[in-house]
Amino acid sequence: MSLPPSFFDDLRSRTSLAAVVARKVTWDNRKSNPGKGDMWAPCPFHQEKSASFHVDDRKGFYYCFGCHAKGDAIGFVKETENVSFMEAVEILAREAGMQMPERDPRAAERAEKRAGLSDIMEMAVKFYRAQLSGARAGAAREYINRRGLTRATVERFEIGYAPPDRTLLFEHLRAKGIEPAEIVASGVAAQPDSGQPYDRFRDRIIFPIRDGRGRAISLGGRAMDPNARAKYLNGPETELFDKGRALYNQGPAREAAGKTQALVVAEGYMDVIALAQAGIGHAVAPLGTAITEGQLALMWRITDEPVIALDGDTAGIRAARRLIDVALPLLQPGKSLRFCVMPAGQDPDDLIRESGVTAMQSLLDGARPMVELLWERETEGKVFDSPERRAALDADLRRLLNNITDQSIRTHYGAALRDKRQELFGGSRPSRGGFNTGTPWRPKGAPEPASAGARASFLARETQALEDHQRLRESAIMAGCLNHPEVARSLEAPLERLPMACSDLTVLRDVLLYHLSNPLHHDASTAVEATMTQLGYDARERLNALGNVRVARHLLPQADASVARAAILEEMAKQTAEMGIRDEVRDAEEDMHGVADEGVTWRLQQASIARDRALRGLGDEEDTASGGEQELSDHLSRLIADQVWIKKR
To answer: Which residues form the Toprim domain (predicted)?
Structure first.
């Protein structure tokens, strides 16, 4: 809303900066000269004992010679009350008796109506506060005492009591000249289809709900009858009250958060009240609904990372996890959420009463980032023992990442989730060095290195020959991917599942996949460049210089992308088959030391079938298996022909 300069001139002329500042400081009478508007005090913005904070009331400016804070009355209210510029203007205008300029006549009419409804709400608050000390409120007072609330806390939160009478408040307001339609419009009374309006709150402890500027906008009530249909009841939506854009204890929490730079989001009234009584005044609560986008916006105006501390029961955990979907599209750099996981079955009020505020503060200090709860939500209680289930998880994670609108945050979330995925599926993270550096990335459940007893096996005897052969194939696959980045991006999922024997090429593959999944790399070629930068050298030059790559023209940069894709897929199929054969032969040879059964027969036969299919390739060419492949195939055939699964006597 744009305000005319004349309005600000009038506001400054009516506002005494010294009077505004006096609410937050104690003047040093030895240094101050009220007659000249020259005032001094310890600075309210930093801890000090000397009076280095100066206010020039005539000019309307303040300055601290210690921390160098400076500004005018609007700036002072903004900083000390932790409000926006416009809210600070509205606070000063209200104190100066000035009407804020309205955009149009309808806006002025609505403002007048809201003011009238707020007056009715204030009357209701005052009435119910008085009822709490009445004879019929004995059970309510006992409940308040049982919950450990002090008299000061009851006064601070203006807690009251609504007697069970059907029309007690309604008649009280009518006696003050309030029209029935206005009473109903305020939300404190309900209008049946026929008959007289009746009080909405009956036999309930009353919690006034105020907006950020301190205006009473609604009421909340806690039923004293254990059989009541609703344990907690909020007022309805009105011109004053939009429950999706309001927070309980918003104003006081905002002021407290200005000092602590923290905000706690609890589930209900009693949690907020218990936290405040324990010294944690920067707490708010949503009003009977799941946290909305509007409430998130309010929280982020108070602090950058609110801590969500909902109840530790199933419903509380479910609510916290639902909030993730609301928050993801709204995340901005520096604006996020953290989650305080309460003990099972406890809320903040329970924990403080049983274990004290130190235990509560310890939990708040250990609040976890949102990405961790997101990962837990997507993986908890699930089994990922098949490629299809892992692919489903990948699809869910990609969908969630696409909900993040800020590219930088999406990138960092993707990196964090990739790390967690590697921990779940792939053990330790691969090294990020160049060729021949780091330890091979071994998937969970993969065979350990050969034991001493297995060294005499065929695989152990032929290790060097097979490694040389596989290095050529893996080099060809990676050369094709680096020369054709978009093809590599289209093959991201099968590349990630590809079994590889060479640790340095495995590192290259994993670093390339990491950058291909980065949303900032819209052009896959930039992902390749980022890979080269991270490795510290140009792997393309080394791979393209290899003889088997130079002669494979379908893998070179100038090759057609569709041809390159088909060639890479064919090599990957052969690689998968050959690695599978090696695993089966190794397992079979281990089983031969015991009593082998038909399972060995079936596994070897399946490995042979897979080998034959893969080596036939994607075209009609004859099987042209290399020396390493042929030797492995011949060994497999001998094992089958000799019926090695039959124990020899």
So the answer is: 261-343
